[in-house]
Amino acid sequence: MLAVMAALALLVVGGMALVNAVSGDPEQKGPVSAEPSSAEASPSPTQATRSQAAAVPLVLRVTGQPTNVVVRVADAQGKVLTNGTLDTGDTLQYDEAPLQVVATNGGSLQVTIYGEVQPRKPNGQRGQWFVREPSS
User: Fold this and answer.
1) Which residues pair with 100 in a beta bridge?
2) pLDDT tens digit sequence for 78-101
3) Residue 102 backbone phi and psi in degrees, to 5
4) Are 97 and 133 in contact (CB under 8 A)?
5) Which residues of the chain have pLDDT under 70?
6) Cβ neighbours of 69 (radius 10 Å)
7) How far apart are CA 89 and CA 97, in angstroms?
8) Cα(63)–Cα(69) distance, rounded to whole angstroms?
């Protein structure tokens, strides 16, 4: 029974990898670093960080255990920007929207959308977030 379950799990994971490989763009754009530049002049570090964060559509910070994260552009093409395991301490910033975000362990992530920290998901449970396009 255990061997059947293991084979089924491998089949599902392999199928997902194949679909991502076939439908993914060969030239994947990665996220940019979320670390603020020390060369920027600002009235105070807190104000500068808040204003920068408010302008950034999405910042992901892994504060718990490593977790698998998929970030995809939420349009007809569905381009995958990130698909992999993020380690504790990793921080990724995305400068485009709309985005769909899914994490295997939502409780491991601190998610900030347009400068607003999102409510933490329960540890060990899948987390999903949607980043809308900015209002014009």
Assistant:
1) 72, 130
2) 999 999 999 999 999 999 999 999
3) -135, 130
4) yes
5) 1-54, 136
6) 23
7) 24
8) 13
Collapsed DSSP state (helix, strand, coil) of residue 31 = coil
DSSP helix/strand/coil, 49:
helix
Burial class (CB in 10 A: 0-12, 13-18, 19+), 4: exposed
Cα–Cα distance list, 114 to 30, 43, 64, 131 (Å): 19, 21, 22, 8
Instruction: Write the DSSP assignment of 51-72 as a string of letters.
Output: HHHHH-SEEEEE-SS-EEEEEE
Residue found under tokens 């990665």: 30
Hey, what amino acid is at 67? T
Tokens of 113: 């959308």
